[in-house]
Amino acid sequence: MPHEENRAPDPVHPSVDPNPRSSSHVALDAEWLKGLCKDSGAADAGLVEIDRPAISDQRGEILATLPSARTLLVLACRLHRENMRTVFHSLTSMEFRHGWDSANRTARSIVAELTARGVRALNIPAGFPFEVERWPGKMWLTSDKVLAEQAGLGRMGWNRLILHPKFGSTVVFGTILLDAESTRYDQPLEVNPCIRCKLCVSVCPVAAISADGHFDFMSCYTHNYRERLGGFADWIERIVASRSVGDYRQRVNDRETMSMWQNLSIGAQTRCDRCVGVCPAGEEVIDEYRKDRKGYTDSFVKRFRQMEEPVYVVPGSDAQAYVKTRFPHKIVRSVSNGIRPNSAKMFLEALPLMFQRNQSDGLNAVFHFTFTGSESCPGTVAIRNRAIEVTEGLVGRPDLSVTADSRTWISFLAKETNLLWALVTRKIRVKGSPRLMAAFAKCFPS
Questions:
Q1: What are the φ and ψ backbone dihedral angles of 236, each rounded to 5 degrees?
Q2: Could you tell me which residues come within 8 angstroms of residue 381 by beta carbon, excluding any fewer than 6 positions away?
Q3: Which of 11, 58, 165, 228 shows its CA 20 to 30 Å from the CA of 138?
Q4: pTM of the model as a whole
């Protein structure tokens, strides 16, 4: 909360509406709102109206959170750049942790001030926690990267980070829902701060960021989130599956156990933040790169590339092949990503995220999936030219058809049901070449 003598001038004072589903507030002054955000600790802020078409897919969730929401106030909060550039991951993890904490404290301060003025305001947590009972589906209430772009706080770069025009990659975002309108709303930046230097490509140990613009979600997720979400679930299952202490140590070495302890103790963070550390986007850092590109690369990129470190990959994934070829000095650790769809619908929705394009070389086929029983959920999966397309319903002529009881299929994916048993009992029926089924499975290692 700013001191009384430094407080921004009052906006038009809103009246309080006792009806949470409608609001008669006079519009809040946009510049006053942004001034309040900066006085409270935010580096920047932007405003987006609830009815903007670009966020229509989030509107239902936002209104479920605050039914009277009219405005989204999006905050950008700073991370300290040198902490993100260091090769010592404990320092980077601590910076991220304090960055999220600072963003949440800032949001709470803003909400307190607005509430005192009669405005209904609700801050969405920056970072975790999520609505984890939805796992493995969408757990977050707002997509802050999308909102930050719409609020004019940056554009998505080659590294899939929102790059602020001044601060570049060293920012985190938060969102506050307001039940009042604003006098003005922001628009996306016309110029993207990303200069496509592709340093993020060269430093990524799992090839999640490709030179042609492709992003491999699964490879990034498996390595980067090793100590949380699916990685944590995989660790628990390794404990349960271990026959003895010695067997556990064969599955999980002592350093990994200590790493998990530390993440559970101080708050789980990401394992790899290379794309943040090497990015030269933003007014604060771009000249450093342009004046001495070799020196910049030697100082920040080579150190990450030369590090000896564990890299977590799914067996049979594109990342496994990449790290063995491009980073032979790094330690390959084969793990599961812990992602198991809990419905037939989620299985189809997850396929584009899990798809490993290099594993699909030479595959050109259409697959029909018909799920029965507790779910009726037909879908078509086309894999051609190392790309995937998933469509609702049965479209075109299939090269292979799968008809399955939905619960049996989900149990099979979780490795709890034997495929041969499911085929014999006709819980799963396959029409087409078994080779195509094997080729399909190869594209989605887990």
A1: -60, -45
A2: 348, 351, 366, 367, 369, 388, 389, 390, 391, 440
A3: 165
A4: 0.89
Give the containing element (helix H, strand E) for 81. helix 81-85
Place of tokens 């390959």: 332
Q: What is the mean pLDDT of residues 44-64?
A: 97
- What the block records as the tokens of 178 is 């307001």
Q: CB of 313 within 8 A of CB of 327? A: no
HSE on the CB side for 308, CA within 13 Å?
A: 1
List the structure tokens of 51.
Answer: 């009815």
Considering just the CA atoms, what is the radius of gyration of the chain in Å?
A: 24
Residues 347-358: what's their mean pLDDT?
A: 96
DSSP string, 336-403: ------SSHHHHHHHHHHH--GGGGTT--EEEEEEEETT----EEEEEETTEEEEEES--S--SEEEE
Gap between the Cα atoms of 375 and 369, Å rounded: 12
* φ, ψ for residue 418, nearest 5 deg: -75, 130
Q: Distance between CA atoms of 58 and 174, rounded to whole angstroms?
A: 15
Which stretches within 138-228 are classed as H helix? 144-150, 199-203, 217-224
pLDDT digits (tens, 9 = 90+) for 316-343: 999 999 999 999 999 999 999 998 899 9
Closest to 194 in 3D by CA, of 286, 114, 324, 308: 286
Distance of alpha carbon 84 from alpha carbon 270, whole angstroms: 12
Domains and CATH numbers, the chain: 4-178 (3.40.109), 199-334 (no CATH), 344-442 (3.30.1050.10)
Gap between the Cα atoms of 345 and 348, Å rounded: 5
